[in-house]
Amino acid sequence: MLFAIGSDHAGYFLKSEIIKILKEHGHDYIDYGTNSTKSVDYPDFGKKVSITISRGQADRGILICGTGIGMTIVANKFKNVRASLCNELYTAKMSRLHNNANVLVLGSRIVGIDLAKEIVITWINTPYEGERHCNRLKKISLIEKRFLKR
Q1: pLDDT tens digit string along 93-137?
Q2: Which helix (H) or strand (E) segment is 83 a member of?
Q3: Structural domain of 128
Q4: Torsion of CA 124, 126, 132, 137, to 10 degrees
Q5: 107, 69 in Cβ contact below 8 A?
Q6: Residue 82 neighbours by CB distance under 10 Å
Q7: How far is CA 16 from the centre of its chain?
Q8: H/E element, 64
Q9: Rounded to an integer, what distance in angstroms lies between the CA atom of residue 134 and that of residue 119?
Q10: Number of structural domains the chain divides into
Q11: What is the pLDDT of residues 33-83, one digit of tens each?
Q12: Which one, of 126, 124, 139, lies nearest residue 60 by Cα?
């Protein structure tokens, strides 16, 4: 699986740890930065990952900022992106099972490294259930077509 990953300065260290997990599990990734703890604007990095997912150029994305809120807002502005902020295992699992989330967002100041690693592994390994959820996702797609200009 190919992942697009990005963070702001607050998420830089956690992003580095998540990249190790992706490598350990045999996944490829595109790292959109940032590459230090120097202050940057999270929308710039959320946009890069979200464009990649929206265009189908990667299978899934991972975004990290201080709380995860900003990155989630940015990512969900893009067509075909279903970003979910997950601070514990249950939402990580359900975001995949029911919502077929294709972007995981983490708050580096909210979750510790060990929990974040578990969230990532759970999210990667949880399949989409389909069935009754397909109609709901179709409705989301219709909303995107009507209200998103991109």
Answers
A1: 999 999 999 999 999 999 999 999 999 999 999 999 988 888 899
A2: strand 83-85
A3: 2-147
A4: -10
A5: yes
A6: 19
A7: 15
A8: strand 60-65
A9: 24
A10: 1
A11: 999 999 999 999 999 999 999 999 999 999 999 999 999 999 999 999 999
A12: 124
The number of CA neighbours under 13 Å toward the Cβ of 48 is: 18
ω into 34 cis (within 30 of 0): yes
- Tokens 């279903």, located at residue: 82
Q: Domain with 107 in it: what CATH number?
A: 3.40.1400.10
The residues annotated as belonging to the active site are 65, 98
Q: Which two tokens stand for residue 122?
A: 């759970």
Beta strands across the sheet bearing 60-65: 28-31, 2-7, 60-65, 103-107, 83-85
5 vs 52: CA distance, rounded Å = 10
Look at residues 124, 135, 15 and name the one whose alpha carbon lies nearest to residue 59. Answer: 124
DSSP characters for 106-127? Answer: EETTTS-HHHHHHHHHHHHHPP
- Enumerate the H helices of the chain as residue ranges: 12-24, 42-54, 69-75, 89-97, 113-125, 132-147
What residues does 126 pair with on adjacent strands?
none
Token pair for residue 103? 């972007």
